Amino acid sequence: MPNLKEEVKSTGLLRKHRQTRYVYLLLAYLGIALMTGLTFIGSSYGVTIAGNAVVGAMKKNPDALGTYIALSALPSSQGLYGFVGYFMMQKFLVDSITMLNATAIFGAGLVLGFAGLFSSIRQAEVCANGIAGVGAGHNVFGATMVMAVFPELYAILALLVVILIGGTLPV
Predict the structure, then answer these.
(1) What is the pLDDT of residues 94-118, one digit of tens each?
(2) Number of other CB atoms surrounding residue 139 within 10 Å
(3) E strand or H helix at 98
(4) What is the pTM of this model?
(5) What is the DSSP string of 89-129?
(6) How far apart are alpha carbons 96 and 20 in whole angstroms?
(7) Quick count: other Cβ atoms within 10 Å of Cβ 132?
């Protein structure tokens, strides 16, 4: 009578089990790629949108460069949130990952990735309008900072969701 280990080897169950684990790991890494990639893309678009506004405003009011830089840098924070999200999920990226952990990481990647992408672009539009206003000589820096916080809030909430998901997953 063959033992269980030999039976598992001869039927290929062990190979199928490994392949399934790699599919789970692939799903988790896809979530990480979405989490970081989309937030990085959003931040790069956002900084570019605001930076283009700085170039136009510099023609009218070059003395406000510090204000322009502060406003144009705001959309870059979402990329940092994606990076932090990766570090929160990194401990779960192991060969023995479970389906629960893999799908949770994938879902967390979707949430943070899309929230970071869209909030960064929309925040950049608010900042670009503020930059144009400062360039035109209006005193709108403070109001622009306040208004720019609102899209940022949703990226922060998405990061908190990632942290909470990571806190509930078994290691």
Answers:
(1) 999 999 999 999 999 999 999 999 9
(2) 8
(3) none
(4) 0.87
(5) HGGG-STT--HHHHHHHHHHHHHHHHHHHHHHHHHHHHHHH
(6) 10
(7) 17
